[in-house]
Design a protein that fits this description.
single chain, alpha+beta, 56% helix
Amino acid sequence: MVGNKRRRFEPAWPGTRVTITERPIRGPAAQFSNPVLDLLVRTRGVTAGAVGTLALESVTYVDMVLTGRPESELPAEAAGRLAGSFGVDLGESAANRRRALGALLGFANGVAVGVGYAFVAGPDGGQPSFRRGLGLGLAAMAASAGPAAVSSLTDPRRWGWRGWLEDLVPHLAYGLAATRAYAALRCDAERTSLRIRRGDGGRVRRWGCLALRS
């Protein structure tokens, strides 16, 4: 087990001594040990989910341009079913509102999956790889198509190979982009204690992350 590392230096003001103590944190639950690192992990998860969602949407619309296929009506149908279950009347232009709400739900799903990946991966997150990207892409695919399948809005058994490919490739792009973005924002899984000892005996303790890599 690696011991704590302490470094001391004399600041510019007299009668003050600063000690920095570094304590390694290991394991997926390391982000729960201090609120600052927890916030950084959450923020990185949101960012990674947003980047992945952008990649997914880009690949989807490029495929629509190349193949000429229409936009899927499944998100709009799921949004309409969700609004109806909460007793929300979409009123006039309900079809347009369903499409807009379906798009927003897709963005929220992408961000939520990114945050979930952040908590599973932990502060270190590991190096991005095809396996990690594929796993996260399949998780995002299950999170989007699973509720629709349970609600009988779609039946994956009847998609055919083309339907599976049209859904799998964008979600694979999501997983690869999100894992790479999360790793690019990786913060060293170390906890830094900064104790400032003043001449009057006062003490200030701050916890933070040692480095934020880009």
